[in-house]
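# nightly structure sweep
# worker-07 picked up a monomer target from the shared queue
# config: single-sequence mode, recycle default, output format = structure tokens
# input follows
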Amino acid sequence: MSLRFFKNHTWKIDRVSAGCETLFGYTCEELLANQNLWMQDIEPEDLQNIQDQIIEDIFHERTGTYEYQIHDHQRRIRWISQTNNAVWDLLGDCWHVTITAIDVTDRKLTEVALKQSESKFLDISDSSPANIYILVRRLDGSFYFEHSYRDWE
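# output follows
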């Protein structure tokens, strides 16, 4: 997606790729007709958390990456990673912003599962009277202990 972002914090979408339909569930025509359509599905708390940073990054022509949740047309939660690149256009009196967005839902679900697994392991190891540890092999062939229940020499 590419858009023009103005000093008064409004924007005008100029181009939308066909991939937006897969990602957000709206056709190019729908997104061009309703400039706010894609934002209405962003989780409100996530939008609030990233909105000021996005504007600041655009105003300073900084590339920024933001992650947020959306509700797709089936009302499932999906995670999006969005990278913006902004360039000031003196003649147009606006910033030209190129937005690249990808679905990172699988990665986020994996992160959640990993955190749950780590938490379960720590609960078990913290309540065990035995020494529980993970022996990890480094790329150079040496080993180290990732976690141990008790401090030992």
